[in-house]
Design brief:
The structure holds two protein chains of two kinds.
Chain A lengths: L8 H8 L19 H23 L3 H26 L7 E6 L3 E6 L2 H24 L6 H21 L5 H19 L6 H32 L12 H19 L8 H7 L2 H26 L4 H24 L3 H29 L2 H36 L10 H4 L1 H14 L6 H16 L4 H33 L6 H4 L6 H19 L1 H11 L11 H32 L5 E4 L17 H11 L4 E8 L10 E8 H20 L8 H20 L1
Helix pairs in contact in A: 2-3, 2-5, 3-4, 3-5, 4-5, 4-10, 4-13, 4-19, 4-20, 5-6, 6-7, 6-10, 7-8, 7-9, 8-10, 9-10, 9-12, 10-12, 10-13, 11-12, 11-17, 11-22, 12-13, 12-16, 12-17, 13-15, 13-16, 13-19, 13-20, 15-17, 15-19, 16-17, 16-19, 20-21
Chain B lengths: L1 H12 L2 H13 L9 H11 L2 E4 L4 H19 L15 H22 L3 H32 L4 H6 L12 H17 L18 H4 L5 H26 L10 H22 L8 H18 L5
Helix pairs in contact in B: 2-11, 3-10, 4-5, 4-10, 5-6, 6-8, 6-12, 8-10, 8-12, 10-11
The chains are: A mainly alpha, B mainly alpha.
Chain lengths: 690, 304
């Protein structure tokens, strides 16, 4: 290879980096001379908490409540940003600890990885909060809105603390606060049965995931005897694989990896749109954070870890986008795209882990950097898309893709920003999605030089990534084409109008961010590498190589824009003085077209979904023309998730059947219950003493 | 300088070659056929005209031709035409370029859906589907070439230290690539047996139906973009079939264009002798190409 690894590279990387990110220091406040960044960070969190608590007091004045809460939250998040930037110069300053319940210590430390994950939190949440001003428009729901603000801000604070938790009790505490506050956010429309079902499902998956995570904590504790994450690397190598797999499944159910994703497509349509944006854009990334953090603290270099993560990534990516194609509820579709993007993120992480196992610093660096940058990119474009979808749903009253149409003319800002988000999420240049996918590709191609299983897996990864990209652009041409282009298919869609500035400004900002990362990729690639600066497991990647890749990607996207601009100029010249007329769309000889004959999203996606039939369940019911006096014909089709079907018929129903047989134990007789307790104690004592 | 000359020739001559296909088809059918410069006449005719826009359409409709044409120009800038070092090149440019082509397809499809016509929607669905499958073959080819040369750019493939060559140590694998790439060429450029550019029924079209509503200079841009795309694939195939020495400079041009014409003639021959596939057979056809390349890539593992 032409890039060697220089020992002084780390120093150079740090100076070259926009964000200089500090080393973690165990919490010991006495040693800190400068507590200022820590104080600012805690001030930011306190402000966000106040911003959440104030609405509970002022909910009778609806407008005041919204302005106060959103204002204080936004300032709090900006302060949080400031504290990250100011702490870069003095890395030791951002750590603190408290004793808790006389037994545990609540300790928080930061390193480059936690700083990187703080970025989307402080970036997306205030924008979602501003958007909520528009979204919560009914004053009669004032109290409920206030409660929603309260839990939103608890969620923001708990997510920020998850990235900093330094030992197991702390992590467990903030992780649970995060899960439970987001559960209350999903339940905003609790009168609806579907919302309650979605909330229950989410709760179930969040808690089952937490159980697995705590189980892995238990295994670590039993070997290391310490709650500290820093001691986790000392456990025997043979246990590490099991610990990592437990944690991977636990965090995976939060992140939404296939087949543990089935709460996502239910919870997102049920939650308010800006909550979906926060949950899908930021919260599920905490699952990714957990996987990465666990991998790094365990320090396991077994190649099987990387292979497992990569395979799960490929499966989530492919099946996520496939189900997205089959879904017609716009928010459910976006939820499946989260599964897809989590797949891409995991593919980056898996390639990075394989790189670590192979001792290949370039492959490891680019894999993890692609993973991190995709976390940031996905948080930007996915929240943009959810906000756009929320605007559409609010303005038309329907979330079914096939009942919309022609919204580009009626909601121009939403339409244009949604188009930007769609091109970005499809991973197409010159927008941001491509930059991170390129890094993942780069790591994968790096892996092609090895043999056997690594070669085969990276080959599959590259082809899957290409197919995922193709299917994602297929799916988003469907959303853009059916929802925003063409003629409106229903009266509701025809009457839709643009919302106020509180709705459009966040979307425009997010769309701008997509383009900025696409045109100036170099500094963001550096930022992603800076996020890995404190990970001792990774060798240093040549900074020159990183800078060249950034410069080349910048060249690619800028040149493409320049050529488009050139062609636009030519087109302007060619059309000078020409006659331009308007007419109806050519109906191919059909003289009385209606909006209903337009191609629907269902038929658009049908051929692909059919092609992948073994992996998707298509259910059709059809009433055909029969006999002399036929009945009215009808046709419905739906695409079902195999993971969901397997979980219902393979797990839930058998479990219910077994439990039903045990129902006689629960008879309501208190005396007998006390008898159970006595018997249980006796049996336990017997077991203990024999 | 040489690079600029060769790209200049390419940009100007690209509309000539589809005329060859038409000529071959006509001769095969025992007709005289249109003049060789027919595509230039068509372009000039279109450029002189104004446009009719459907009242349904938005700015997206106008973006379609722009982005697809820009993508076509961009990819030629990075391609070593006639094995002359390309104007621009960097490690990884193939990924950027194939994704830029995909951006072009995204906007072509969006423009088609913008008209609200059911036929255009149908064409768009097919284009998106087959395009996705073809992408798998293309990336399989990139994997194989990376295994063979360690390179990730067109420049390095054909003008680098270890250029791809049929006579090289693993040149036999390229035979599989040639077949697969030809199949991808037919798919990506909407030729028979995947799509029939000369058909008359909208229901059976793929690419043609998507651009039904474009007219005047917009249509000219689409046509130009598709000429560049076809030219790129044919040139790619040419350099694999007939490896040229980069030291030859512009002297390579006659050989390069000779082989290029042969490839267009082959396309014409295929179109004259084959019928268009039933739509349900097309995915199998495209998948066959990717299986060929993946097989070739597996062979590079060297089991002995």
């Amino acid at each position: 290879m032409f890039w060697g690894i220089a020992p002084s590279v780390k120093a150079r990387l740090n100076t070259a980096i926009v964000l200089e990110i500090g080393l973690p220091v165990l919490a010991d406040n006495k040693k800190n001379d400068n507590q200022e960044p820590m104080n600012i960070f805690l001030l930011a969190l306190a402000m966000i908490l106040v911003g959440g608590a104030l609405p509970l007091l002022t909910y009778r004045w609806f407008m005041l409540t919204k302005c106060l809460s959103v204002g204080v939250t936004t300032i709090g998040c900006i302060t949080g940003f400031y504290s990250i930037f100011s702490a870069n110069a003095d890395p030791a300053s951002l750590a603190w600890s408290w004793p808790w319940l006389h037994v545990f210590t609540l300790a928080f430390t930061f390193d480059s990885l936690s700083f990187f994950f703080l970025l989307p939190i402080f970036l997306i949440c205030p924008l979602a909060a501003i958007y909520s001003c528009f979204y919560f428009e009914r004053a009669e729901n004032s109290l409920r809105t206030a409660i929603s603000y309260f839990f939103t801000n608890i969620l923001i604070v708990s997510m920020a603390l998850v990235t900093a938790a330094a030992n197991m009790p702390t992590f467990a505490l903030v992780w649970e606060i995060m899960s439970i506050s987001s559960y209350f956010l999903v339940m905003y429309d609790y009168e609806k049965t579907t919302t309650r079902a979605a909330g229950y499902l989410y709760f179930l998956f969040a808690q089952a995931g937490a159980l697995l995570i705590f189980a892995s904590f238990g295994v670590i504790f039993s070997h290391s005897g310490s709650f500290d994450f820093a001691q986790a690397a000392t456990i025997p190598e043979s246990v590490k694989l099991m610990v990592f797999l437990l944690a991977f499944l636990g965090f995976g159910s939060k992140a939404g990896i296939f087949p543990l994703h089935i709460w996502l497509p239910h919870a997102h349509p049920a939650a308010p749109s800006h909550i979906s944006a926060i949950m899908s854009g930021v919260m599920i990334k905490m699952g990714i954070y957990g996987i990465l953090r666990f991998y790094f603290v365990l320090g396991a270099t077994d190649i099987r870890l990387g292979q497992t993560v990569l395979v799960f990534g490929i499966i989530s990516g492919l099946l996520g986008v496939l189900y997205a194609l089959g879904k017609h509820n716009i928010k459910r579709l976006l939820a499946y795209h989260s599964v897809e993007n989590i797949g891409i993120i995991l593919m980056g992480a898996g390639l990075g882990m394989i790189g670590v196992a192979q001792g290949d610093a370039v492959m490891a660096g680019f894999g993890f950097a692609g993973c991190l940058l995709h976390v940031l990119n996905h948080s930007i474009f996915k929240s943009l898309l959810f906000l756009g979808a929320g605007a559409v749903i609010r303005r038309t009253g329907t979330s079914h893709v096939d009942q919309l149409g022609g919204l580009m003319k009626r909601m121009p800002v939403t339409g244009k920003t949604f188009l930007v988000g769609s091109v970005s999420i499809s991973g197409l240049p010159p927008f941001n999605g491509f930059v991170s996918e390129f890094l993942v590709y780069f790591a994968a191609f790096q892996g092609l030089q090895y043999s056997q299983s690594t070669l085969l897996l990276t080959m599959i990864a590259i082809i899957s990534l290409a197919v995922i990209g193709g299917l994602a652009s297929f799916c988003f041409t469907k959303v853009v084409g059916i929802v925003f282009l063409g003629e409106p298919r229903t009266e509701n869609a025809r009457r839709a109008t643009e919302g106020g500035w509180a709705m459009t400004v966040p979307m425009v900002l997010l769309a701008g961010a997509c383009l900025v990362i696409g045109i100036f990729p170099a500094s963001f690639i550096k930022l992603a590498f800076a996020g890995l600066a404190d990970i001792t497991l990774l060798g240093q990647v040549n900074t020159v190589l990183v800078a060249t890749i950034g410069a080349h990607l910048a060249l690619g996207s800028r040149l493409f824009l320049a050529i488009i601009f050139f062609v636009v100029l030519c087109r302007k010249l060619l059309y000078r003085g020409k006659e331009i007329t308007e007419g109806p769309t050519w109906g191919c000889g059909f003289t009385r077209p209606t909006a209903r004959i337009q191609y629907t999203g269902t038929s658009y996606a049908r051929s692909v979904v059919d092609f992948f039939r073994p992996f998707v369940l298509i259910r059709e019911t059809e009433v055909r023309l029969q006999k002399i006096f036929p009945k009215r014909t009808a046709y419905t089709s739906r695409v079902d998730d195999i993971a969901e079907a397997a979980m219902i018929y393979g797990v839930a129903f058998p479990l219910l059947a077994v439990l039903r047989k045990l129902r006689w134990i629960q008879h309501g007789n208190v005396q007998l219950y006390i008898g159970y307790i006595i018997v249980a104690i006796l049996v336990l004592l017997l077991v203990l003493f024999i | 300088m040489e690079s600029l000359v060769s790209i200049g020739i390419a940009l100007l001559s690209a509309p000539l070659f589809p005329g060859i296909i038409l000529k071959v088809k006509a001769l095969f059918a025992g007709k005289k056929g249109p003049p060789l410069l027919i595509k230039y006449y068509t372009l000039l005719k279109l450029l002189r005209k104004g446009s009719v826009y459907s009242s349904t359409t938005t700015f997206v409709f106008k973006l379609g031709p722009l982005v697809s044409c820009a993508g076509g120009i961009m990819i030629l800038l990075f391609f070593p035409l006639a094995a002359v070092v390309p104007v621009l090149s960097f490690h990884g440019d193939v990924l950027v370029l194939f994704y830029i082509m995909a951006t072009g397809r995204f906007f072509t499809i969006a423009a088609a859906l913008d008209t609200g016509s059911p036929f255009q929607g149908m064409g768009a669905a097919r284009e998106a589907f087959f395009g996705t499958l073809a992408e798998a073959s293309i990336f399989a080819i990139l994997i194989l070439f990376y295994r063979m040369t360690g390179a990730l750019s067109f420049g390095e493939y054909f003008t680098g230290a270890t250029p791809i060559s049929l006579t090289g140590p693993s040149g036999a694998l390229l035979l599989l690539v040639i077949v697969a790439l030809f199949m991808v060429l037919l798919t990506e450029n909407s030729r028979v047996p995947v799509d029939d550019p000369a058909t008359h029924l909208e229901l059976t079209m793929i690419h043609e139906v998507m651009i039904l509503d474009h007219s005047g200079p917009d249509l000219a841009l689409i046509e130009l973009g598709s000429f560049y795309k076809l030219y790129f694939y044919a040139a790619f195939l040419t350099l694999i079939v007939c490896p040229l020495n980069p030291a030859g400079g512009l002297l390579n041009l006659p050989i390069f264009y000779g082989v290029l014409v042969l490839i267009y003639v082959t396309i014409g021959l295929v179109e004259s002798t084959m019928a268009r596939f039933q739509m349900s057979l097309v995915p199998k056809f495209v998948l066959a190409s990717s299986i060929l390349v993946v097989f070739a890539a597996i062979l590079t593992m060297g089991f002995i």
